[in-house]
Design goal:
GO molecular function: fatty acid synthase activity
CATH superfamily of one domain: NAD(P)-binding Rossmann-like Domain
Pfam families: Acyl_transf_1, KR, PKS_DE
Number of strands: 27
Shape: globular
Radius of gyration: 31 Å
Keywords: Acyltransferase, Multifunctional enzyme, Phosphopantetheine, Phosphoprotein, Transferase
InterPro entries: Ac_transferase_dom_sf, Acyl_transferase_dom, Acyl_Trfase/lysoPLipase, KR_dom, Malonyl_transacylase_ACP-bd, NAD(P)-bd_dom_sf, PKS_DE, PKS_KR
CATH class of one domain: Alpha Beta
Number of helices: 30
CATH architecture of one domain: 3-Layer(aba) Sandwich
Largest sheet: 16 strands, mixed
Distance between the termini: 35 Å
Helix content: 25-40%
């Protein structure tokens, strides 16, 4: 597959050009041909020399992208991967034609150069393009009112369309989409390809392309201009005009290729931009196929290409490893010739202890009760001889039921945890040492001015964008205010700008070789108690993501600090205290009352009376998102059993989901009315349409949001688009439900969150961020006087949620699988007690902590029985330059063995004024297989 624009990035493939002889040979040939056609050098453009033009010029980026695509195809083929077909997107068809043999390299270079030059000279500045997350049909209907001012430019998939046209009309479309919650983004071009504007260059383009000599190809060429296979001898001047004028039919062509049995799609580009569209087609057609990129943005060297080769190989591509490894010294070894038995011999985890309802000496009695053995019960109770057993007929079953309920209650109690904020006592004056880097996107804003004052002379440099050059260190630490920006990202609205910029900053620091701990600051993302509640739930996503960053690269992560509403001198002193404290604590909240640290504490009910007995209304509708999945279906059955009048089950597949028909029949047999809607809850318009189907006689009374997407990838391997994809269902879906159901009389608004948001899980940064938002949204709704309950789940067993092998792996990591019926019971308890946030998980903390705290202590996410009653003290810096008369300064009679303090008694532990360097370790692997 060969994309058009969008995959380019500064320095793309430069390292591969330097390291791969085959790739270099192809790039050298392309550079030689282009040099005869342009006034710039491909070598200088790719390597970003001082006088080279930038990739922002269409007459530079299109030829350069063509060269990289053709050269990548040559490299894949040298590795033994021969294409069975080629397909291109817009200008990508030129590279596809060259690889298919339908155009010579010289003709391809001439065509892409002349085409892009005409666009720059005649079309640039008169149009634009926008990507819309709607089907082509829905998009065409939406843009009809502009009467040709906007047209469909590309059918990428059933869920993604590109439009092009007049700038003013496109601006109106973007505003309309934003108002209606439809994802749309402006593509960074100032011309309108595949629109009527192209007609003004028809004559020039056909005349310039007349010299192209198409020829028979040796690889099938599938045209996204005509929508089907094409003899490459037809790639004449008229075809190349139609290529630029007609809409790109990539979606239909991809589905046809899938129907023909093609099952490995390889993208020849410096960054995968067609892979998501192929995955959409795979999902839409129910086929099985893999889509693999070649390089990634800012990761364009031989290591990334080798990883792509390996991924393609395990997906079925025939890689010639002898050719790949060459003279590297790698040696082929034989695998054992006998078949693997796949036997596992891990020590099994200890069974969770739970209160049994009777002491050990009473065990014979309770065993008799459980068996229903009346004679044995009478003997254990030493009833008088001849006394009738009649009374025991009713008593024993009642005792058995009572004991079973008590055991279940005790077990579920042992699964319950909550987040608590514990005050700590910091010294009045905390001194920072070393050089600190401040990162802020708003250097003149209130927070930046306050932070510079708070950190004082320790701030020796400031960075205003994660994309800018990192000032030379070494740095003691990095303080980032990027997380304060919780407005939607312009290209991926589900992702807050602060989260996107923090991921970019982590990448930039890593690439600059800076291991100094990064501290992320937010404001209103957490609440420490009833009088201090969450006010910025969007910023809470940084907390979920940050916990994962700390696991994936402990040496480069400091922690998280939530700022108070009032940024004054006291808050400044608390910030210095937190940053100076070293690595023992990673999560702080600064409040007028002092410094707080986060703790996960056990939260047993211990028989506390419930506030209510929640049941779904018989005359209301319960909306269950992800309702046809394993979790959603289990929730739906529970609701139907409990008497729900009407269930609206939403899922992306709707009734096409596996088992949907049987589920609906089962729920109706239980007495519930059921509606199943094919709906992406991240799409506001789709969700609104689904909610509009609710019958008037069954108004929406409750919501259970189980929908979610989880893909494993470390943050340094996660693109912004991938981040948005994972965050969309959980975070955007929760936000859409909150907004669309405003004003409804709800008696339950349940959000299924994950343990990944509570303690982090390597490879699940986006997932943790999305679930942290769910927890914060529940708290924010409570602040607004609305009902909400968010449960962060551990691992559910059974029902297709976790297979047996994975369940055993999780248990070995300390996360035991919970019986789904008991988990539902825990949810019922949370609703009965009207709780806001709760973590429910069956943990072996000793096993879990062995991995989780291997790199550094993590007291914020490993539980204590109760939060400590008195404020905990933190040791001040050992050798600060205390000004005379400051509280907390050692008095003159201090000696080597003792000190007399004029301030509070010296606490037992505090950092040295600067975080202690941590050795680089591999990321901690934590288990968090959750809903």
């Amino acid at each position: 597959m060969f994309p058009g624009q969008g995959a380019q990035w500064a320095g793309m493939a430069a390292r591969l050009w330097e390291s791969s002889p085959v790739f270099a040979q192809w790039m050298d040939r392309c550079a030689e041909v282009l040099a005869r056609l342009t006034d710039w050098s491909l070598t200088e453009v790719i390597h970003e020399t001082q006088d080279a033009p930038g990739l922002d010029r269409v007459d530079v980026v299109q030829p350069a992208s063509w060269a990289v695509s053709v050269s990548l195809a040559g490299l894949w083929r040298a590795c033994g991967v021969e294409p069975a077909a080629v397909v291109g997107h817009s200008q990508g068809e030129i590279a596809a034609a060259c690889v298919a043999g339908g155009l010579s390299l010289e003709d391809g270079a001439a065509l892409v150069t002349l085409r892009s030059r005409l666009i720059a000279e005649e079309l640039s500045g008169h149009g634009g393009m926008v990507s819309v997350a709607l089907s082509p049909a829905d998009t065409a209907e939406r843009i009809a009112r502009w009467n040709g001012g906007i047209c469909v430019a590309a059918n990428n998939s059933r869920r993604s369309t590109v439009v092009s046209g007049e700038p003013e009309a496109l601006a109106e479309l973007l505003a309309e989409c934003e108002a209606e919650g439809v994802r749309a983004r402006r593509i960074p071009v100032d011309y309108a390809s595949h629109s009527a504007q192209v007609e003004r260059i028809e004559r020039q383009l056909t005349e310039l392309a007349a010299g192209v000599a198409p020829r028979p190809g040796d690889i099938p060429f599938h045209s996204t201009t005509t929508g089907g296979p094409l003899d490459t001898t037809g790639l004449d001047a008229d075809y190349w005009y139609r290529n630029l004028r007609r809409p790109v039919l990539f979606g239909p062509v991809t589905e046809e290729l899938l129907a023909q049995g093609h099952d490995v799609f390889l993208e020849m580009s410096p960054h995968p931009v067609l892979v998501p569209a192929v995955q959409d087609a795979v999902d839409a057609t129910g086929t099985t196929a893999a889509a693999v990129g070649s390089l990634r943005r800012d990761d364009g060297g031989p290591e990334r290409f080798t990883l792509s080769l390996a991924e393609a190989f395990v997906r079925g591509a025939p890689v010639d490893w002898t050719a790949v490894l060459g003279t590297s010294g790698a040696r082929r070894v034989e695998l054992p010739t006998y078949p693997f038995q796949r036997g596992r011999f891990w020590p099994e985890p200890r069974t969770a202890a739970a209160t049994t309802g009777g002491a050990e000496e009473d065990a014979p009695l309770w065993r008799a009760v459980d068996r229903g053995d009346l004679a044995a019960v009478a003997a254990e109770l030493a009833l008088p001889d001849g006394e009738s057993l009649h009374d025991l007929h009713d008593l024993v079953p009642a005792l058995s039921g009572w004991r079973r309920r008590r055991k279940d209650s005790a077990l579920v109690d042992s699964w319950r945890y909550r987040v608590s904020w514990t005050p700590v006592t910091a010294p009045v004056l905390a001194a920072l040492t070393g050089d600190w880097l401040l990162v802020t996107a708003d250097p003149d804003g209130e927070a930046a001015r306050w932070a510079r004052t708070a950190l004082g002379a320790s701030v020796t440099a400031q960075l205003t964008s994660p994309d800018g050059p990192i000032p030379a260190g070494p740095w003691t630490g990095v303080v980032s205010l990027l997380g304060l920006a919780d407005r939607p990202h312009p290209d991926h609205p589900v992702v807050p700008v602060g989260v996107a910029d923090t991921v970019a900053l982590l990448s930039a620091l890593r690439e600059a070789g800076i291991d100094a701990p990064l501290w992320g600051l937010t404001r209103g993302a957490v609440g420490t108690g009833r009088s201090d509640q969450v006010r910025a739930p969007g910023q809470a996503q940084l907390w979920g993501l940050g916990r994962v960053a700390g696991l994936e690269n402990p040496a480069a992560w400091g922690g998280l600090v939530d700022l108070p509403a009032e940024l004054d001198d006291r808050a400044a002193g608390l910030l210095r205290a937190a940053l100076a404290a070293g690595e023992d604590e990673q999560e702080y909240a600064l409040r007028p009352a002092g410094l707080y640290v986060r703790r996960l504490v056990r939260a047993p009910l211990d028989g506390t009376a419930a506030r209510r007995s929640w049941r779904p209304r018989p005359d209301g509708t319960v909306v269950v998102t992800g309702g046809t999945g394993a979790l959603g279906a289990r929730v739906a059955r529970w609701l139907a059993h409990a008497g729900a009048g009407h269930l609206l089950l939403t899922s992306r597949s709707g009734m096409a989901a596996d088992g949907a028909d049987d589920l609906v029949a089962e729920l109706r047999a239980l007495g519930a009315r059921v509606t199943v809607a094919a709906c992406d809850v991240a799409d506001r318009a789709q969700l609104a349409a689904a909610l509009d189907t609710v019958p008037d006689e069954f108004p929406v009374a409750a919501v259970v949001h189980t929908a979610g997407v989880n893909r494993t990838a470390t943050l340094d391997r996660t693109t912004l688009a991938e981040l948005a994809d994972v965050m969309s269902a959980k975070a955007a879906g929760a936000r859409n439900l909150d907004e669309l159901l405003a004003g409804h009389d709800l008696d339950a608004f349940v959000l299924f969150s994950s343990g990944a948001a509570i303690w982090g899980s390597a490879g699940q940064g986006a997932y943790a961020a999305a679930n942290a938002y769910a927890d914060a949204l529940a708290a924010d709704r409570r602040r607004r006087g609305l009902t909400a309950t968010s449960v962060a789940w551990g691992s559910w067993a059974g029902g297709g949620m976790v297979d047996d092998d994975l369940a055993r792996d999780l248990a070995r990591g300390g996360v035991r699988s919970m019986d789904p019926d008991r988990a539902i019971g825990a949810l019922q308890q949370a609703l009965d007690h009207d709780e806001t946030t709760l973590t429910v998980t069956d943990m072996d903390w000793e096993r879990f902590a062995g991995t989780f705290t291997a790199a550094r202590p993590r007291p914020s996410s490993t539980p204590s029985r109760r939060p400590p009653a008195p404020p905990r003290r933190i040791r001040p810096p050992e050798s600060p330059n205390w000004p005379p008369g400051w509280p907390g300064r050692p008095t003159a009679n201090a000696n080597a063995n003792s000190s007399t303090w004029s301030g509070p008694p010296p606490p037992s532990r505090w950092g040295t004024g600067a975080p202690r360097p941590s050795p680089r370790r591999s990321p901690s692997r934590t288990w968090a297989s959750t809903p």
